[in-house]
């Protein structure tokens, strides 16, 4: 319902075939995102750093394909988008790398390859394993979290700034991004990322919340 309503509200589209939804998280509550994309008829690319979560969703049939190669992900995205194939593709890697690759594609080809975007990392708990920084691999980040939580926190906040910077570039070209109620925008703001709504008070964000703007 969230994906369908986001398409209706922001893309003015009842039919989401050929539209691309990019997000992250395939763990607990976020695990349904892949299935939602296919039910809605769009192309869903969902990043997940934990391979166990990816394999679980794939085994369940909620996730159609898995890849750890960004070149392959972009090629599959282009193909599914062109031929309007409903697809759920799990990218085994950090979502920041995925967003930054989409910015690179925009900069080099002029193509905006994503229509809808969100995030379901556990940003209500970003410094205890809910969000993994792009600068490190999954196992390396887990080790740092246990040995030097202060350094881990710093890397998470740097990663959040990169995360938002990439989203902002794509949103400026027409992608519609929303907050999934996971404190992503709040933690990004605390990290110093550019998420404040221009001309509004400091508690308002430049991107809407799905609760008020989409489900409401």
Automatic annotation (TrEMBL):
UniProt-listed Gene3D superfamilies: Urocanase like domains
Transmembrane segments annotated in the record for this chain: none
Location of the Urocanase Rossmann-like domain: 2-214
An example molecular function term from Gene Ontology annotations: urocanate hydratase activity
Pfam families: Urocanase
GO BP term, example: L-histidine catabolic process
UniProt-listed PANTHER family: UROCANATE HYDRATASE
Protein name: HUTU hydratase
Organism: Calyptomena viridis
Gene behind the chain: Uroc1
